[in-house]
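Model it.
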Amino acid sequence: MRSVFLLLACIDGPILVVDSTPPLVEDERTWAHDRPSTGCLIDEDGDGFDACEDCDDQDPNRFPGAEEWCDGVDQDCDGAVDDHAMDAVEGWLDLDGDGFAGPDGVVFVCPETPGVHWEITDCDDTRTSVFPGALEVCDGLDTDCDGEIEETLVPTDYPTIQEALDEGTWIDWICVEPGVYRESLDMPYYDVVLESVGGSDVTTIQGNREDSVVTIRRGNSLATELRGFTITGGFAKPGSGGSVRYGGGLHVNASAATLEDLHITGNLCRGNERCYGAGLAITDGDVVMTDVRVTGNRSTNCHRAYGGGAWFDHSNVEMLGGGFDANEQDGCEWTRGVGLFAWGGDTRLRNVTFRGNRSSRSPVEGTALGTYSWASMDVENAVFAGNHADTDSSIDGVIYQSTGYLGLRNVSIVGNTGRAGGVECGGIRIDYPDAGVDLRNVDISDNRIDAERYSGGWFCNRYAGRPAIDARFVNVFGNDHDDFGDLSDVIGLTNVSPGYADLSGEDPRAWDLRLGPDSELIDAGAPWIHDPDGSRADIGAYGGPGAADW
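Modeled.
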């Protein structure tokens, strides 16, 4: 509808007629000013889409349905930048998150798109454990993506473990399926990995009570690995001299080896000879051990028993986890280190236990741990609990050190007992004044000894002259006789109940030596040593930085 407005003025001259109606347009279009005030009718860039449809009405190359290109611009106005670009390239996603991509994750994206791999390197992109450079494990897979399955399976490929070991140097990885294997093994002269598929709880090497169950010798390197077995039923065999028996369960002789997840148990040394390590013997070796448990081994009726559980002879040994529990020495003329005895060498123990070891009928030097001949023994985060000796002769400490170095940091020596007809020394016995002793954050509590003669409470040394001792932040409480023994000048020496969580029951392996919430040993250690949470270290086995590794 058109409207005409007449403006009449009462003036002299002509009358002015004003027509304000817009011109007519085609029926299919609507006047811009007749629409809402959005101005959608206008297509300023001439690309066929007005401002309501176009995501950029100033750029004729941007409109719905336009070709997308890798330039950081949303050309097709779908809200996504560089998607389905005409110049996209092929790449691959890492579907299993192991850092490598396989063929199934193909995508077409713009170059340099984050998170996209530009080559296929993963041979199985559904398993996070399979990728180039991965550690081979006993799984029947090409774990490291080198095109080969290196491991050999027993009994699938060979009926016995020894037959696989004897096959030759071309086999470097032997995987043993769960079961009990009744044989004694002699590891070859070349480096080989012998590993169980299911671990030590389900895979056992059962000896014949005539020999060591497993022998490693001939100069192997740390690349020789033994992993995931229970080793039992061995009988310590005589060495080359014929008068000494070594390692009923495992003997590492003049060789290096890496040992992991082993349970060495139920092995025996018996006879008139000397027994060195009824369970484990390492002679002139270089060995790294992780989670190796030496338990329930026995030396009996022998001349001398050194290490009812284990014997380290002039060897370098690193051990993390595991321990020496419930080993026994009885009826021998002389006993040293019922759990472990080290003759020379350098030993470092971390997060280990010495619990429930037993000795009877003979003098004892170290109901749990003993060292001799300038051995260096460095122990951190360890439990010495419930070890016992019963003898008409003498008991020389739960820990015995002759010469060399003894370092104890964050250690609990608790609930050890004994009966001695002769002189008894308490928790730690130092034999010679030229020994070096370093104690930090150690608790020695509730050790009970019935002795006719007594030469010290928790610490004593036999001969004249005092060893070089640096003892700091040590708690001594509830021991028989003189609690403070030969030392009274320890920096940070305390005499309080440790307040352990649970010491109930006869089996010390079931005790919980973590500190209770009200223990006075919490945050009472050396101020320069810290717990994993950053607080001042607790005293005892579960304090200090190594507490995180239990």
